[in-house]
């Protein structure tokens, strides 16, 4: 998602089958993003604050080589001036997209100390906490960044994604719809909704929202990779492979298709977990 991506988990139950299924689904979504050289929850999921840009190109849209260059460039600038807000946010975003979540969180912790009341900093700090797995603190931080008299749709979407990871899907989807009321047809919100339904095992609803997200101006390849996963999980493997390999450089397309095939090879595992859930309910 270009307004990124805390990922999500299924349901509120505590059964071993549900926990195993949650782990598989979360791993699928996160690994897809890492394969693309993009970084959770999920992220991603995936969450909801626009990433900084380098030379007019958003970090979320960079390929692996561009992202590595961005990390070096922003890192050098951060070393020179670690309290500079735009530099710190850009560096943390690039690190997170490169999968270096612990380092991204460390940068944002310093930024939060330097700018304790800044809404943008608090929002990015919350996202970094979520990417590093500290969901309760991430939720607290995102809520502190939000202002009821002048709410931000990105924060609603980010809060929803964190709640989804905590198994609170009903309030999460309420927040996504609030965000859509403020920003209709925003692909990042639609993508979060789609991933929420994916992790709730409602693949048809997930596909519907992800197709809508992918059709909107400004959607990026990560949305289409998640769509490919949903399509493949419904058994339409050729269509999923076509979606997964479109609009990417050949090397990244090949890596994404290889990952998709590996995930879809686990169909028997998905089916067994689903049957176990039914037996336990």
Automatic annotation (TrEMBL):
Pfam families registered for this protein in UniProt: TPR_16
Keywords linked to the UniProt accession: TPR repeat
Origin superkingdom: Bacteria
SUPFAM superfamilies: TPR-like
PROSITE patterns: TPR
UniProt entry tagged with the keyword Thylakoid: no
Transmembrane segments: none
The keyword Repeat is annotated on this UniProt entry: no
InterPro entries the UniProt entry points to: TMTC_O-mannosyltransferase (IPR052384), TPR-like_helical_dom_sf (IPR011990), TPR_rpt (IPR019734), UCP035836 (IPR014596)
Residues in TPR repeats: 153-186
Protein name in the entry: Uncharacterized protein
Organism field: Aurantimonas manganoxydans (strain ATCC BAA-1229 / DSM 21871 / SI85-9A1)
